[in-house]
Specification:
This protein is an alpha/beta fold and 333 residues long. The protein is built from 10 helices and 7 strands. Strand 3 and strand 4 form a beta hairpin. The structure holds guanosine-5'-diphosphate (GDP) and magnesium ion. The site of guanosine-5'-diphosphate (GDP) has 14 residues, from helix 7.
């Protein structure tokens, strides 16, 4: 996943300890028996410390993805969760510090060469290097927090996706298992306690993704806070269609009227193609409703093939449409 290779970002104090320890160690065992060897020893301590700093700093920057190249879904989530501009600014500070360290080290190496007693010059150099690192303390802390948040983002592939919506217990999970075979993985998703369930299936060589979003698309929008709505908004940046599942038998525990209201809400606010499917056709209380285009039973399997064909058709139609126009980035719920 995009964010998994971001390692823990060290604090400024950790960086300082590491660099100066290594600089001291580089000197141990060296015989210092002349002015020349003393100069060289101090010079190389400065260079060793500076190299440790710049290596570590450029590794931090390199391991963050370049945000403008992120898939829209991840870009949106990153922006909601930590702020893309703030990330860019902190990474720019790290870059700046790295260049500054290089510059300062070079100039002090010159000073050491021209000095009679090199130790105080080297100590001054270490002081300057340490204060550059301390000046980016907040950026390092922020990047580490960001890293801890971003690495928990779900592993959502850039594959055509079917997002399942509908009240709890209507049969969403049963549907995902039925069409994706093996037990789907559960990926953590921000602002949900249950994460999202993601399964895959392949048709004619194309891999598709089926996503169930417990806690997100299974209750009225009015029950959500701003940040949850943003998390829902990000879903719309996937290459996805929505299957809204209703349970006309009401054995899910929610009245059909409530289910219809949620459907209307999602239809109104969610700018993705939507297919309404009635589940539990095997139950005696099942009755057809005009909202549902198709009926299925995830237990007997009836109707599922038809639903899948229709969903794939919708994905294809969406693809043809969106190649004509770019989706609106300002979508909100
Ligand atoms: N009779 C019947 N029960 C179903 C069907 N699909 C799901 N169920 C049952 O409905 C309950 C909730 O299913 P689940 O897939 O967990 O619903 P979710 O909460 O929407 O994910 C479970 O007890 C399922 O066995 C169906 O087509 N027919
Ligand atoms: Mg479920």
């Amino acid at each position: 996943m995009t964010f998994e290779k971001i390692h823990t970002v060290p604090t400024s104090q950790e960086l300082i300890n590491k660099a100066f320890k290594r600089a001291a160690r580089a000197m141990s065992g060296k015989t210092i028996d002349s002015r020349d060897s003393r100069l060289r020893a101090n010079e190389s301590m400065i260079l060793t410390a500076a190299n440790i700093f710049t290596d570590n700093l450029s590794n931090i920057v390199r391991r963050f993805p370049s945000f403008d190249q992120l898939p829209k879904f991840y870009y949106e989530l990153t922006d909601i969760l930590v702020g893309v501009e703030k990330l860019k600014m902190s990474l720019a500070s790290i870059d700046w510090a790295s260049r500054k360290i290089h510059e300062v080290a070079r100039s002090y190496v010159g000073n050491v060469r021209n000095s009679d007693i090199p130790e105080p010059v080297r100590k001054e150099a270490f002081g300057r290097l340490a204060s550059i690192i301390k000046s980016i303390d907040k950026d390092l802390l922020f990047l580490n927090e960001a890293r801890n948040i971003l690495r928990k983002l779900p592993d959502v592939k850039e594959e055509p996706t079917i997002v399942i919506a509908g009240y709890p217990n209507v049969g969403k999970s049963s549907f995902v298992s039925k069409v994706t075979g093996a037990s789907p993985e559960i990926a953590p998703y921000p602002f949900t306690t249950k994460g999202v369930t993601i399964g895959h299936f392949t048709r004619e060589g194309v891999r598709y993704q089926v996503m169930d979003t417990p806690g997100l698309l299974d209750r009225p929008m009015s029950e959500r806070n701003y940040i949850e709505r943003q998390a829902i908004t990000a879903i719309q940046f996937l290459d996805a269609v929505v299957m809204f599942m209703i349970d006309p038998s009401e054995s899910c525990g929610y009245e059909l009227e409530d289910q219809k209201r949620l459907l209307a809400e999602i239809r109104e606010n969610f700018k993705l193609p939507l297919l309404v499917v009635a589940n539990k056709a095997d139950r005696p209380e099942f009755r057809k409703t005009e909202e549902a285009e198709l009926s299925i039973s995830t237990i007997t399997g009836e109707g599922i093939e038809k639903v899948m064909n229709r969903l794939l058709e919708m994905i294809e139609e969406k693809r043809l449409l969106s190649s004509a126009e770019e989706p609106d980035k300002e979508l909100t719920i």
